[in-house]
Task: structure prediction
Amino acid sequence: MNTAMATRMSEMNMAGGMMGGSMPTMGMSPMMGMMMPRCTMKMEKCKGGMKMMCTCSDKQQCAMMQNLMMMANMGMCSCVMMMNGMVMMQCNLVMGMCKCEMTEHGMMMTCTSGDKNCEMMIHACCDAMCKMMEAGCCCCMMMNGMPVCCSC
Result:
């Protein structure tokens, strides 16, 4: 990225992004050039919130995903739904407590809340993300704004 473009992108971010909205965290991530691990994602509602299972068949990608997750565990989890490189929706799961557990072939993120209204919001995010993935969107999962894995 050349200096003029980087300066312009920085100015747009400070000004509230393009067209008055904020730019998605993923677009301004310092790790933008990093290859994110590809995985298979499965999301489901559970008591209190949702679970997201991320699995990789490739051992190196699995290890990379697990290492990235361990660095950012217990932070804010967000999922960006994308189609053709454009952000369609972003769910910031700030209404619940997100925690990650490593599995043999990846990891499982659980986001739950004891508050019934927050549980309903997490369930709505889960439903929306599942529908968008069924329709062909990719899901990029981030912890504290750092891309961890992608379902494309």
Observations:
- The longest strand covers residues 40-46.
